[in-house]
UniProtKB/TrEMBL annotation, chains A, B, C, D:
It comes from the Bacteria. Responsible for the hydrolysis of cyanuric acid, an intermediate formed during catabolism of s-triazine based compounds in herbicides such as atrazine and polymers such as melamine. Catalyzes the hydrolytic opening of the s-triazine ring of cyanuric acid (2,4,6-trihydroxy-s-triazine) to yield carbon dioxide and carboxybiuret, which spontaneously decarboxylates to biuret. InterPro entries: AtzD/Barbiturase, AtzD/Barbiturase_RUA, AtzD/Barbiturase_RUB, AtzD/Barbiturase_RUC. Residues 111-248 are annotated as: RU B. This is Cyanuric acid amidohydrolase. Residues 254-366 are annotated as: RU C. The lineage of its organism: Bacteria, Pseudomonadati, Pseudomonadota, Alphaproteobacteria, Acetobacterales. It comes from Falsiroseomonas selenitidurans. Inhibited by barbituric acid. It is an enzyme of class 3 (hydrolase). Pfam families: Amido_AtzD_TrzD.
Amino acid sequence: MPRRASVFLVPTRHPGDAAAVAALIDAGVVRASDIVAILGKTEGNGCVNDFTRAYAVEALCHMLAPRLGLTAEAVAARIAMVMSGGTEGGLSPHLLVFAVEEAEAATPGGALALGTAFTADFVPEALGRMAQIHATAVAVRAAMAQAGIENAADVHYVQVKCPLLTSARIAAARARGATVATEDTYHSMALSRGASALGVALALGEVPEAALSDAVVGADWSLFSARASCSAGVELLRNEVVVMGQAPGWGGDLRIAHAVMPDAIALPAVQQALRGAGLDPGGGQLAETARLVAVLAKAEPSPTGLIRGRRHIMADDSDINATRHARALVGGVIAAAVGRTDLFVSGGAEHQGPEGGGPIAVIARG
Amino acid sequence: MPRRASVFLVPTRHPGDAAAVAALIDAGVVRASDIVAILGKTEGNGCVNDFTRAYAVEALCHMLAPRLGLTAEAVAARIAMVMSGGTEGGLSPHLLVFAVEEAEAATPGGALALGTAFTADFVPEALGRMAQIHATAVAVRAAMAQAGIENAADVHYVQVKCPLLTSARIAAARARGATVATEDTYHSMALSRGASALGVALALGEVPEAALSDAVVGADWSLFSARASCSAGVELLRNEVVVMGQAPGWGGDLRIAHAVMPDAIALPAVQQALRGAGLDPGGGQLAETARLVAVLAKAEPSPTGLIRGRRHIMADDSDINATRHARALVGGVIAAAVGRTDLFVSGGAEHQGPEGGGPIAVIARG
Amino acid sequence: MPRRASVFLVPTRHPGDAAAVAALIDAGVVRASDIVAILGKTEGNGCVNDFTRAYAVEALCHMLAPRLGLTAEAVAARIAMVMSGGTEGGLSPHLLVFAVEEAEAATPGGALALGTAFTADFVPEALGRMAQIHATAVAVRAAMAQAGIENAADVHYVQVKCPLLTSARIAAARARGATVATEDTYHSMALSRGASALGVALALGEVPEAALSDAVVGADWSLFSARASCSAGVELLRNEVVVMGQAPGWGGDLRIAHAVMPDAIALPAVQQALRGAGLDPGGGQLAETARLVAVLAKAEPSPTGLIRGRRHIMADDSDINATRHARALVGGVIAAAVGRTDLFVSGGAEHQGPEGGGPIAVIARG
Amino acid sequence: MPRRASVFLVPTRHPGDAAAVAALIDAGVVRASDIVAILGKTEGNGCVNDFTRAYAVEALCHMLAPRLGLTAEAVAARIAMVMSGGTEGGLSPHLLVFAVEEAEAATPGGALALGTAFTADFVPEALGRMAQIHATAVAVRAAMAQAGIENAADVHYVQVKCPLLTSARIAAARARGATVATEDTYHSMALSRGASALGVALALGEVPEAALSDAVVGADWSLFSARASCSAGVELLRNEVVVMGQAPGWGGDLRIAHAVMPDAIALPAVQQALRGAGLDPGGGQLAETARLVAVLAKAEPSPTGLIRGRRHIMADDSDINATRHARALVGGVIAAAVGRTDLFVSGGAEHQGPEGGGPIAVIARG
């Protein structure tokens, strides 16, 4: 039976605002039981003490619970929810609701395909290491299978939500005689994102298994996935994987494509992704805004301290975190291309695209 | 005798770094005595407690003093120095040195023309009011005359540095029985920039005298100059005006043009300014980067809280000042168009371009 | 029938952490139905975009709902919840649970007395004006009556949670032809707190009615309550009032006292409040920490820019909001006196204590 | 010939304000040639991009140059200048001018004694390692000898200014085949401060040589000096050492004492230092403020995340750096004790006092 993937972008008025999603459900636009994932940009700082992410997840779970006949906890276990904090510059807070339902017919040439999968909970010592890489790769392949994607080339974006180390988790590992990849909890976010991205790269054949080891995580930036987007959060112990592809057997008029931004100001890469999704970028800024459904991208401060040879100050700024600068910048570059600011631009692109750059995906209506 | 205007963009390593300008002088690339203005982006917060601006001015004055045979104070009185704080996103700290020398011949069709002028010192009660508007208009006309620009349409950018109110200045006015436009020192920056911009608009014929009054300053945003860029600082009591035009009687191969960005993500306006200066913006990002000499633009958070109908969070962010978000965003949009990040993007665009937008000027080599 | 007031201080691990309160209830330490108010310090910025307050309230309501057999909304309507954002310096995030139950006997000399009351919802044009002052005074008197406090001198702290203006509320007023006290939403927080504090002062006889008018709110700092603590939040339309007193007819061993800090570093005032509550401040730092139950205080940056003649930089800091500096400072001063950091220090003390100072209350076990 | 040490505390209006020191010199209160050190609190963020420190040093050097008949560079080489950024909470920006002149007679029982010394420039690979520890110890002993202090117990405070690693310095070391202690430039500040403090501890006999190695720097917090205060800055390559003691052979009525704060809220330790310097701390807050000349202290966020068992949020705050919270807190605690806010409270106390605490010194007039 063919399936159809739907994507709904709704604005939020604040991080706890689940009303627009509730309205979609209550108006019959989407069935709660069809929802497989919700991604969101929330207006926190995107760093350690960003509680807007957990607040948004909690609000969505409490809203969905009665509509699904589940507890809030069961909702969280069923639907992949990936909140990315930080709407710097002009980025507009919003939610992206992904749903899957049966379709009457598959679209010739295929259409947007979605699959989700979860790893088992990780022990702390697995994070940022081969164990996380392997388990993520298994989950990516499972999500591809669920989406009916046989060819890795048909995968255009893999969103992963992954855990981090806390002081309590480190202590628990130590009590068992185990060591963790880092004792710096902030740094553990980077290593967890990095290992998750390498797991995606392994599953998609972008990096050979022989090139991988604990030592390359967070160290060898030549190894990366061009389609991974990973986000770490304290609120889970497993990896949650959402695979987005363009595949046969799917109906509807949604189409996805991706490109790789070699640096933060790579407008041409944004335009390439637009073209891939069937949109005409025009002489600079997209005219047909209405057909654009969603843009997903990663941003990071160039670790060389330079963008095309010119110094940036992101890493030296002790008032504004470097990832905040990076999101504002990349948000501006993409907004220049698409004429919209409700973009899912997420920070911290370790092993997700090349050093100083990152992947970008576009979902458009046919 | 024809003149020739030169513009040198040099990077800085920190706000007190005048070494690259010293090197230009010491290598004979520019004569210290030809320098008429220095504009700069410094890596402070661009707000009240941004001391990087004054630090940069002091470093430049101490460097230039022996090279001009003047005291540091006399250097500050002679050369217009306008530092704009804030290099958010990917903006790269740099200085723009403007110099004027005699030329053998004028360029047919004209070339970049520069003129500077200063008002007398203002009494505190003049700031943000008609007195400042009128004095600024007089100075703009004087700078145009110095530049030999007869037609206001030939003016493409007017950079103004203006004073602000401090507690001491307010008290001094009060002691004389005078009232000031505002007792909020931060707000006085906005009013001083706004009155200065309206002075430019008056001089250039963009706003008729009859439309102006104390009451419209900071209130009626329909009144604006499409070519004014104003920056307030505590370190002066007068307005310093730098007029940049494209005029006959000037030699060399530099050319200037401007456009107005209707909102913060108006890529087409950036491209229009590039074309005006003789550059081909291509299918999105400028290819001929080397011919681009300087980009000057104003950025401001849209006061409606929206960009093309989508909410931004700039005005509600109590951690990062709204003007900082705006500079990061507009810097990203312009970098997308020109492929460079050493852009003079300045915040606080009251009466400088339309609400939520701002003027942009491009200087290019022929 | 005599009553007994209980106060439980529990730490939180994050703003959404209601587990410690749940544990108190589930262990039978406090009955959910006895809880009349919950105050809390959450680790947000305490300013406009501090979503930790609403997140904490939502988490508490969802935790309490099944334990009270109510919806989350009904919990919010029943229990006064006042979250104060900002744990700068060393302040420790925590919740204060206030409960009232029947007692076998009243304590001779009285004991801690609690009363709560709510105003009706305000129309936007009432905020920051006489209407809010009057309604608050009525609610304070109702809460006193509920607590059986006849003598205003027996009131030692009045915690008020009050609404603020939003763009939508301002527009609604304007649509009806009404004007609001300010169109600056951030400033409306100050005016709403100020009018609420003057309402307390009126009810307690600290300021005569004749001295009050719309014009004095946020303007005449000589008018203030020595016992009001007001906090503005977007999540309500009414004022919620918690009166804390020392009154006959109440049992148990809790005792409350207050003092007024004339400036931010007034250690002696802290010691005076400790003494009032029956604690011996010793030669500087309290030794008998265990008997100390709670400290509640207001902090504000001195509007003169000086503390005892020495300049502070709070108001000029565009990176850290002035109220954040003030909480850190006052938190340090009180921690010096009591040897603890879990203090309810709240910012924004308009008409709450004298200019640059604020009220402080201490609750101790006998 | 006996000597006399003088200390002048002057407020500043901004980081570039050297006017009050100039006034002291021009009024004959202090001779420029007698000045041996200037310490200052400047109102930057105290972190990587705090340019207020260098701005203050440059302003002081340019002011002193004509008064000493030296170039600005020669002034910087002659006088130890230690600017500490960050005046969070209520801390008041100020400068402390230390001068030494001949005295007619030594004070019985001794008086404040000052000595300064400098190491040679360090190669990058020496920083944060035994080479820096040893060279600092040699300089401390030289400064003690210059001050005529024979007994290490007579030393009460040692202020050290030390270098840090930059990307350029790391690259230079690498080019020579040398490795550096860390490639993280921010972390190099901590290691340089730590090694400098251990050098002080070695010179004062607080830590035996056998306990020291490269590996303990930044790792074994049980090793510390109770009298070291170290500050890292990019503007120098050597360590600059100012030893302050109470020693025979010195005249005048100034007296110094120190204590160790075991944690950030240790009011009794502040009172102990006051008593040591001959001041009566009273029942909490010092009454005789006028006799207090200067307070110098170090602050750091407790690395356990707790203060006396209660959670603080300093290390998790991605908006405000942890050292900024710590300075605000310790500034509040000391202000509570002394009733003044012009305190030299500096952040980053690695190996300077115990974990979470730090040394405090008081200079008072007899």
